[in-house]
What does this fold into?
Amino acid sequence: MSAGSSWDRLRSSRSSSSISSRHNNNNERLPSRTVTLGRVQPQAPGHRTIFCNDREANALVKFKGNSISTTKYNVLTFLPKGLFEQFRRVANLYFLMISILSTTPISPVHPVTNVVPLSLVLFVSLVKELFEDWKRFQNDMTINNNVIDVLQDQKWVSIPWKKLQVGDIVKVKQDAFFPADILFLASTNQDGVCYIETANLDGETNLKIRKALEKTWDYLTPEKASEFKGEVQCEQPNNSLYTFTGNLVVQKQTLPLSPNQLLLRGCSLRNTEYIVGSVIFTGHETKVMMNAMNVPSKRSTLERKLDKLILALFATLFTMCLIGAICSGFFIDRKYFYLGLGESVENQFNPDNRILVATLTMFTLITLYSTIIPISLYVSIEMIKFIQSTQFINKDLHMYHKETNTPALARTSNLNEELGQVEYIFSDKTGTLTRNLMEFFKCSIGGEVYGTGITEIERGIAERNGLSIQEPSKSANVIHEKGFNFDDPRLMRGAWRNEPNPDACKEYFRCLAICHTVLPEGEDSPEKIRYQAASPDEAALVTAAKNFGFFFFRRTPTMIYVRESHVEKMGKTEDVAYEILNVLEFNSTRKRQSVVCRYPDGRLVLYCKGADNVIFERLADGQNDLKTITRGHLENFGSAGLRTLCLAYRDLSPTMYESWNEKFINAKSSLRDREKKLDEVAEVIEKDLILIGATAIEDKLQEGVPTCIETLARAGIKIWVLTGDKMETAINIAYACNLINNDMKQFIISSETDLIREAEEKGDQVEIARLLKEEVKKELNKCYEEALDAVNGPKLALVIDGKCLMYALDPSLRVKLLNLSLMCHAVVCCRVSPLQKAQVTSLVKKGARKITLSIGDGANDVSMIQAAHVGIGISGLEGMQAVMASDFAIAQFRFLTDLLLVHGRWSYLRVCKVVTYFFYKNLTFTLTQFWFTFQTGFSGQRFYDDWFQSLYNVIFTALPVIMVGLFDKDVSASLSKRYPQLYKEGIKNNFFKWKLVAVWAFFSVYQSLVFFYFVTTSSRNGHNYSGKIFGLWDVSTMAFTCVVVTVNLRLLMACNSITRWHYISVGGSILLWFLFIFVYSGIQTPKTDNVYYVIYVLMSTFYFYLTLLMIPVIALLGDFVYQGLQRWFFPYDYQIVQEIHKEEHDDRRTGLLEIGNQLTPDEARSYAVAQLPRELSKHTGFAFDSPGYESFFASQLGIYAPQKAWDVARRASVRSKPKGGKKSKTEDSK
It folds into this structure.
């Protein structure tokens, strides 16, 4: 196309006056616009202009390409960016500075001492990053090289996705994915309709309908499509998946665009041969890519406390160095003539400048004592938590849902131990506590209740009150299908015609059949048709209409076809076509949905369905009696745990409708604040409604929810339910779940009071707000005072609705709300918005500083999930948005028991043990060097060889602690759930307190003194076979050997269960040391002169073997006695449980599951169990640990480990004291 013709086209399309066009009953006025000089109008900040089928015009704007990259690094940035990420960790940065310091003359150690462990840690971390990024790169390349048909020279040409450009005309075939965000132009289906699946966006597998503008339906063939020259003005790229505003200017007409014409990248085409569209957003500007941000980075509470421990080690290091520096300043003196401190001595040992000596010695000692900071701690913990997630949590058969073939999924490994410390759970109700399988159960029509069934909640209420319920007899030929569980012969099979209100019934059924966005699929017979609905509620309502004789069987963009049966089932039916003029869609603000339709006889009707409070506010006058009766029905439905909606309608005059429709079209065409303007226009027509009745849908509880909640409550976890349902429904669900019971004192703060209703009827919003705030403040103060009086009384429960919560979260009242809530055992928040869910979660998280967990299954739970310390997504029927935003995903609420009480608790115990052990072994090793400093005049002389110091952390003591982090287990999974009170130790953080750290530190000091002074003292008179006395390197090698052996054996004493992996790792670490020293001391180089042949000399003496036997025993004696006394007189709860069940063995096998593509769930389960390792534990503890505790593998196989003789006396003493406080307490809880 020439420049001139392009300019003429642009000028004519922009400067022409507005032309009204009726399209889908939408009219549009095009505002006049000015054109600046140049070919393309400059991009305004608020919108972009795209020229369809014109690459030249779009090239001037330089839109982004369609190639995507999800990698963190590229060839140039990998090293600098990767190293930057690593050095953000304090420990790594510290070792970098130490490594630099070790290259200076003041360093007593060779640079290799610090460079080698730092390099190993960095290498492992960078290789891990590289591997993960390479996987992302390969995935990107696969996606970018997919092919798509693009219109070029009046024919379809296949090109890779990455070469696609904004404005291109593309052809997408059935079952293919959309390569970019595409404006839908034409389809092979009639009426310009196509069906898409959005599973990659939100996980919803039900099909969505998209409608092309009627003006573009013809552009289907390449010849026709090449004629299409349109201009799209639309919003700038954003991450809102469900909104889109824009206008299409084509053939001098301006047509409004909505999300119905946008096909998003990542979705796939279904039930349509192919579609033709124009590319709007590409690459990283597509909506799905703009949503592809990482879940907010979360750090576990334990990891933050670990930072404090590292700081404490820094303080210890500084103190040790300061002591050595000050002492060196005092010690240095020329009177020690044998030191040769002449006039020409270097500055570090010059007695004339003692301050400089102390300063330089300070830096020397910092380098010397650098091993006190555990450099390999972070890498070890990361490795442990990664394996815990991928191998234990993801593959636990007890969290595998067979019906949906869904295993548990740990989406992050950073928060494993956080699962063992949760104190507050915030749960959604629908789909989380309940099944989200909706069934039409009862209804109210014209003031009359229909439906004879009894819900699970009603049965639960009767049981609590000690009443027996007579099950109603079912009528003959009762219909029960998915979504419909209704029984009342007064309405079925056309019997509603004999009711006193048949006209109301007819309007009711038509509202159900017309007011929705459901898509029919399959044959148009009642038995074979399938409904694709955005929510299970909608499908249930349309299914109900079908069974009442109003069968919705076909939909086009402008019509709905209903097969109406007005007589008996075998009688006549009539296919009625209703023209859909406007759809006012449901959202969380409106809480209602309306449809304007035209009957075949020309009657204009608005049908509306929505929440009762929203509908009642918009009813016409003169319906007070019906409102009162229906409100009573709604309360009864709510008491039975049913979900309710109100139905209403309004007849419209043609004049009034035309006037309103013009405003609606203007609002729909607006590029700015379109949603707000549409809501305002909807308010104009959604008033003066006539109430038809109400629906009541049952959503049954998930399996095992009551038991799970009861177990979690015994574990000390408080559960809050945050739901958008009515208060009565939420309270009854809470009763059914065992969250609330009759023994609790209940505080109810509701906006449904007579005083507030009177104010609402007057309609003064300012007065309503003032009154609500006053009432909430008064109720909060009253409840708080009563709660204080009932501290030692019954458990407390708080129920509050959304309106009251809005004011209770006000800064002036939120502290009172928090204090009251924390005193309650259970809290139920009703009618809350997604934002309020997140606010409540943040209130407890930040205000109370308690560890929180949020669990939900829908998009409205995402903000709550991200606000909590730990977010759990339920992979249910409402899509995968909650899962995609979560840290862990499970299929059923009941799996929380295993996730928290088993895996969470084990992870917490293991990580605590790993961290404290690292602290102990590094402090012990460094203190032996510290004691040696006192023997060297504080000169900074090293005690150990450089390579000993380098490999101590990364080779000689690394593997055993990882085994503990993976396999240590205090009690079995079944006992963890049998005694949920054990979980309270995690909530109280009993295993990572400063007192516990102080105990480890005390024994580090004790053992380091034993290693240094016992070895040095005993070796003073020792000599080798040639008669020479032992030198420094003989003594230090002997001491290092004792350190390696002792700290590895000490780890076995800390274990509750020992497998052969523990033996292999501990024995292997000690063996590695001997192999290393044999090779290292057998090679003579300038750098190994110190230790040349040392080990061979030592091992030729009896002294070596005696010392190697005695020193570890003496060093571990203190730990042995302490553990015995602690377990005997001050046992932890888990130790009491160990004693109770010391002669039992656990039959549970912690199942590990691998999902195979070619295996059924049953086959996968059988295969996984068959593949479990067969390693058996020969020993289940050390010192005073209980031998009743099988190893990790033994417990999987149900193998009973034999008892050990040394426990008999201790057991007898424990049995003789059955009235011990903690023991009896735990037994009572059994």
Q: What stands out?
A: The longest strand covers residues 434-445. The chain has 42 helices and 33 strands.
